[in-house]
Automatic annotation (TrEMBL):
<keyword id="KW-0732">Signal</keyword>
<dbReference type="InterPro" id="IPR054593">
    <property type="entry name" value="Beta-mannosidase-like_N2"/>
</dbReference>
<feature type="domain" description="Beta-mannosidase-like galactose-binding">
    <location>
        <begin position="37"/>
        <end position="192"/>
    </location>
</feature>
<dbReference type="InterPro" id="IPR013783">
    <property type="entry name" value="Ig-like_fold"/>
</dbReference>
<feature type="domain" description="Glycoside hydrolase family 2 immunoglobulin-like beta-sandwich">
    <location>
        <begin position="260"/>
        <end position="307"/>
    </location>
</feature>
<dbReference type="Pfam" id="PF00703">
    <property type="entry name" value="Glyco_hydro_2"/>
</dbReference>
<dbReference type="InterPro" id="IPR036156">
    <property type="entry name" value="Beta-gal/glucu_dom_sf"/>
</dbReference>
<dbReference type="InterPro" id="IPR006102">
    <property type="entry name" value="Ig-like_GH2"/>
</dbReference>
<comment type="similarity">
    <text>Belongs to the glycosyl hydrolase 2 family.</text>
</comment>
<protein>
    <recommendedName>
        <fullName>beta-mannosidase</fullName>
        <ecNumber>3.2.1.25</ecNumber>
    </recommendedName>
</protein>
<keyword id="KW-0378">Hydrolase</keyword>
<dbReference type="InterPro" id="IPR050887">
    <property type="entry name" value="Beta-mannosidase_GH2"/>
</dbReference>
<dbReference type="InterPro" id="IPR008979">
    <property type="entry name" value="Galactose-bd-like_sf"/>
</dbReference>
<dbReference type="InterPro" id="IPR006103">
    <property type="entry name" value="Glyco_hydro_2_cat"/>
</dbReference>
<feature type="domain" description="Glycoside hydrolase family 2 catalytic">
    <location>
        <begin position="327"/>
        <end position="442"/>
    </location>
</feature>
<keyword id="KW-0326">Glycosidase</keyword>
<dbReference type="Pfam" id="PF22666">
    <property type="entry name" value="Glyco_hydro_2_N2"/>
</dbReference>
Length: 773
């Protein structure tokens, strides 16, 4: 078994403007009088400067712009290390799980390698160089990503957003150059752990489990294995598998003829892994032992989920050719209800400390899918393990977003290596449902009048990697994917999966209500942050008013100062969405916050329930988004400080496995519908009533089949009538609740605040007087 020795902790960090000194090796550092601070690993250089008192808090006010001066610096990390454990002649590697980004590495002043990708791990063979009990020096130089980007050649066929052209060649998280949801924080650092790996002569190198068949009678699992073994051992090698999940147990020993191969084994009456709401996310613990006769040479334990995942999709969806975009798990159609997963922090060394609490929010909301957006990093095993055990499917974009990336053979090779590393790392996780080539890059091609199907990266490079390393998992080239036929039609309505943003006007406008796509990969609406959070990141003299407020613009989010920022409109948009619903712009910040959160909450509730009530024409929505990665005014329903907006509570009700909902008026009536997104039939009783008069509008028993959609009745409802309808139902002694806002804007803000008290008292209650606080 590979032993690891951690090298995290405090290093020394030297820094200076790149080009001020020409340093050829670490020994040269000693001859210069350079600034240095304590460098934390894992860490980011800006956080070290803040800790040293050299930078103000970048999360507050307009301090984020102070980071730009360091974009053209270089950074040198150094530390001593000593290994006191026996090493002998074993193979030894230095493993850097995340270095941002253009790095060169030295051990005892001898260069051992370099890297140019923050998104993957880097390994360097140092066998024979590290001696037991001897002190060694490890040095890492990180050069400016911006300067490196300046050295590249750019072509008319490459494109990025206004402030993001550096992202085209440099393999960093795209959002780091600035986005509408994240500030410009280009950063540098050793952002994930560093360790020494000491290998054994006989070792299990790689195992890959694939579920080929899964039903209640039998599961067939294929195992790919690769081993290291001494040649003298080859005649007697065996692989012993022991798989246990509750009372289900499988054990078998297989003779091996080589150090690489495939095995297939069948587990009778398996316990299957299901997405949240459809059953338990059952995990088998599989112990794999490498044997030579009766001697155990190596062993490892993996957790796997036995399930199949299919994506049933068409290239277009039109009246003549009705389309589809449906996930099936274990042969069962799954209605997807979940969120886009965006950066947890602008400084990714802080991600690991935030992931568990963020996943707990998704679990509480009953999300059954998270989409790892292509503008971020690839999450580590801790994220996927939490999704595995909580039944959350993961849609994984490759790290490309909103751009047309180089088609150059050198960049193709860079992306191929990146994809290979990421795919091999993550492919055993049962939560990983789909690979996607990028975020909105197909859209970028169409915007420029070019055919996205000429993009060799997502049409050739990535599919080849996946065929080689993960051939049984679904893949889609982009989100949204614009197929050759869809491109020919020049009609967004023909895309089976879309990102539904539009003008972002009234959330029940025709853009949303008449959208013909089957699956919404993105769909969001603004909601103002709670006052207690605003007071933490906006300076006191800039808290109010919202209009012409540069700190609000900065946190809306503007990557650059001044009138040229492409995202200045977002504060005004938030205010306009309030005015759209209530016919006014509030004059007090407290009212602005509450009105904005009501607008957001009603919008996202509508988006989710619209999908549920049109099941199976629509098959999923991934709303934007769960939690902020820095303090801002945004579409997130939980802010950076984990403070929940009103939308959180509305979504929690709308995403219950069994939910009673009210559709939009038609023919003088609204229809009351019930959706069951589970594998169990349900029955109970329900009541629908007017919130003001307490008049019962509809009531009675109900029964709904597993994974079904049904109608409970109709209520007379002219479009001109504004009222709040409350809903309560009971299943097996447990009560549930929901509401429906009937009518068209503008609604009375004061009336809605009174209604909010009644909405809050429904099952899954919350404190109405804490909304916006």
């Amino acid at each position: 078994m590979t032993r690891t020795i951690g090298l995290d902790g405090q290093w020394t960090l030297y820094y200076f403007p790149q080009g001020d000194h020409q340093i050829s090796d670490p020994e040269h550092l000693k001859t210069l009088s350079l600034q240095s601070v304590a460098g934390k690993v894992p860490g980011n250089v800006e956080l070290d400067l803040v800790e040293a008192g050299l930078l103000p808090d970048p999360y507050v006010g307009e301090n984020i712009y102070e980071l730009r001066q360091y974009e053209t610096y270089e950074w040198w990390y150094e530390r001593e290390l000593q290994v006191d454990e026996p090493i002998g002649s074993r193979r030894v590697e230095l493993v850097f799980h995340g270095v941002d980004c253009m790095a060169t590495y030295w051990l005892d002043n001898e260069r051992i390698g370099q890297s140019d990708n923050m998104l993957i791990e880097h390994r360097f063979d140092v066998s024979g160089r590290i001696k037991q009990g001897q002190k060694h020096k490890l040095t890492v130089r990180i050069q400016s990503a911006v300067i490196e980007a300046m050295s590249k050649r750019y072509d008319p066929s490459s494109r990025a957003m206004q402030t993001n052209y550096e992202q085209l060649w440099i393999r960093k998280a795209p959002h780091m150059y600035g986005w509408d949801i994240m500030p410009r924080a280009v950063s540098a650092g050793i952002w994930r752990s560093v360790e020494i790996a000491v290998h054994e002569a006989n070792e299990i190198c790689d195992l890959f489990f694939s579920t080929m068949e899964a039903n209640t009678r039998q599961a067939v699992v294929q195992l790919f294995y690769q081993l290291h073994a001494e040649p003298r051992r080859l005649q007697n090698l065996q692989l012993k598998l022991t798989a246990v999940c509750g009372s289900s147990r499988f054990e078998q020993t297989y003779p091996l003829h080589f150090t690489y191969g495939h095995l297939r084994f069948a587990i009778p009456h398996p316990v299957l892994w299901w997405p949240r709401g459809y059953g338990d996310a059952a995990m088998y613990e599989i112990t794999t032992e490498l044997l030579s006769g009766d001697e155990v040479l190596d062993a490892r334990v993996d957790s796997i989920g036995i399930r199949t995942v299919e994506l049933i999709r068409t290239d277009i969806s039109t009246i003549e050719h009705p389309g589809q975009f449906m996930f099936k798990v274990n042969g069962v159609p799954i209605l997807i209800k979940g969120s886009n997963w965006v950066p947890l922090d602008m400084f990714h060394s802080k991600d690991a400390g935030r992931v568990a609490e963020a996943i707990a929010l998704a679990v509480d909301l009953n999300c059954n899918m998270l989409r790892c957006w292509g503008g971020s990093v690839y999450e580590d095993h801790d994220f996927f393990e939490l999704c595995d055990r909580n039944g959350i499917l993961v849609w994984q974009d490759f790290a490309m977003a909103c751009a047309m990336y180089p088609q150059d053979p050198a960049f193709q090779e860079t992306l191929r290596k990146e994809a290979e590393s990421v795919v091999r790392k993550l492919r055993n996780h049962p939560s990983l449902a789909i690979w996607c080539g990028d975020n909105e890059c197909d859209d970028s091609y169409v915007y420029m009048g070019l055919d996205p199907n000429d993009n060799v990266l997502t049409r050739k490079v990535l599919p080849r990697v996946l065929f080689q390393h993960d051939p049984y998992r679904p893949y889609v080239p982009s989100s949204p994917y614009i197929s050759p036929e869809a491109y020919r039609l020049k009609n967004e309505d023909a895309y089976p999966e879309r990102h539904l943003w539009g003008a972002r006007d009234y959330f029940k406008s025709g853009f949303y209500s008449m959208a013909k796509s089957h699956f919404a990969g993105e769909m969001g609406y603004h909601g103002c942050t709670n006052l207690s959070s605003i007071l933490r990141y906006i300076d006191e003299d800039h808290v109010w008013p919202w209009k012409d407020n540069e700190q609000w613009v900065t946190h809306a989010t503007a990557p650059v100062r001044g009138p040229d920022s492409a995202y200045r409109y977002r504060v005004q948009l938030m205010a306009d969405q309030i005015n759209e619903l209530f016919g006014e712009y509030p004059e007090r910040i407290e009212d602005f916050i509450i009105a904005s959160q009501i607008s957001q909450a009603e919008a996202k509730k509508y988006f989710i329930e619209r999908v549920r009530m049109r099941k199976w024409h629509t098959t999923g929505v991934l709303w934007w988004n769960l939690i902020d990665g820095w303090p801002q005014f945004s579409d997130a329903i939980v802010d950076y400080y984990y403070s929940k907006k009103l939308a959180y509570h509305y979504i929690k009700r709308s995403q219950q496995p069994v939910c009673i909902m009210v559709d939009e008026p038609d023919s003088w009536h609204v229809r009351v519908k019930i959706g069951n997104d589970s594998n169990q039939a349900a029955k109970g009783t329900f009541r629908v009533w007017d919130a003001d008069s307490n008049e019962t509008l509809l009531q009675g028993p109900f029964a709904i089949e597993a994974n079904g959609i049904g109608e409970l009745g109709a209520i007379r409802a002219p479009r001109s009538q504004q009222r709040l309808i409350l809903i309560r139902w009971e299943i097996d002694g447990t009560e549930y609740g929901n509401h429906y806002l009937q009518g068209t804007p503008g609604f009375s803000y004061e009336q809605y605040k009174a209604w909010l008290e009644k909405i809050a008292q429904l099952p899954l209650s919350f404190q109405a007087d804490q909304v916006g606080v």
